[in-house]
Design a protein that fits this description.
It contains three helices and four strands. The chain is of the alpha+beta class and 118 residues long. The radius of gyration is 14 Å and the shape is globular.
Length: 118
């Protein structure tokens, strides 16, 4: 049983040689849905700062994902992660409201997971 838990945790968060943690929200936020289903992301964190957020495969249309990627995800870059403080709210993208809301929640869950398990 322990091996299964360790393998599952490895799928959620891994640490690169340069100290960057990568949190994959596929399983920890599978209940968070955008326009057409789950909207998982990978959040790259180094030295308690978000390096980047990368959208993963989703059923939301490519047009909506592109809007969020270009208009929202870069706003997370360089954002500090502080204990017991919520991330500042990043504005969503007009025309992709459901996807924006889901991505925002995915990033929040990734940060919470990172804080608990790093």
């Amino acid at each position: 049983m322990t091996a299964f838990i360790a393998a599952d945790a490895q799928q959620v968060m891994r640490k690169e040689k340069d100290g960057t943690y990568i949190v994959n929200t596929t399983t920890i936020a599978n209940d968070v849905e955008g326009y057409a289903g789950p909207t998982p992301v990978e959040v790259y964190i180094k030295k308690n700062k978000i390096v980047k957020v990368v959208p993963l495969k989703t059923m939301d249309g490519p047009k909506y994902v592109a809007k969020v990627k270009n208009g929202m995800l870069t706003k997370y870059e360089g954002m500090k992660i502080e204990k017991k403080k919520a991330l500042p709210k990043v504005d969503g993208v007009t025309g992709a409201t459901f996807t924006s809301d889901a991505v925002r929640e995915n990033v929040q869950r990734a940060v919470e997971y990172y804080q608990k398990h790093k």
